[in-house]
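Thread: 2-oxoglutaric acid complex, take 2
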Amino acid sequence: MSSDRRRRARVQGGWAAPVPAAAAAAAGKGKEKAKLASPSPPAWLGKNVDHGPAPQKFLFKEPQEVILKYKLYIKAGVYDISSEPSGVARVRLFPSFIEANQCEWMYEQLFSELPWRQRSDVKSGVSYLQPRLTAWFGDFPYSYSGVRHEGNKNWPPILAMLKEKLEENTGCKFNSVLANLYRNGHDHVPWHSDDESQLGNHPTIASLSFGDLRLFELRKKAPLELRANLPEDYQYTEYVRVPLDAGTLLIMEGACQEDWQHRIKREYHDRGPRINLTFRVIHPETE
Ligand SMILES: O=C(O)CCC(=O)C(=O)O
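Output below.
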């Protein structure tokens, strides 16, 4: 059995439920791309969970958002998504930045070698378990929404290699990475801007994806004076969607954090696991 076949066999008997597409591909049937399944759970899984509130019964609520209009970006390109009020907000998109035949082993190494942990956000004094796992590497500690990641300079070789490849190809330098593991379609990151003072003005954030495809969305904030009088769903004027699949690099720069918010939407149908790496420049904390 080739090492690739052996890996597939282990994957199918492991943590994730067997994925029909992967099973068909392993059996040599069908030409469709095999859906990525998780390898066996690493030892840290289940231990590194913040103490959050008792699990609550999930109540399905019909999404209430009013989507006014959205643009869909799929092709490689440089997209200026707005030019005011804080300057140009730019998104650069590079599908297949990582070659397709490299994505699977990179995903597996990231999955098994990063110290994934489920942390808690604090909003209005209430603690919520984040609907995803995270890991942090960087010269300095990084804090947001009540979460604090301590500085961690022990970059695993896979992350150091990806950072170097990014820097060579983009001309940007990064000193940290926030890694997100979305275990299934329910894992998500809600609307937010990466606008903490530690990121400075107009931060450049390079986001690299592995694993299953997820929809990345951006929405433009309405002018402040209008937002004050509008219900939450009407406080945004434009929407952008970018499907992010394995190997895709997306860079946000300019006024993306000042004038826009972004999210990975919760899905209501099945999705395989996905890992996203957001490379950033973090400045030391000031008192
Ligand atoms: O997973 C993604 O593509 C986005 C992650 C993100 O928004 C963040 O880490 O701030």
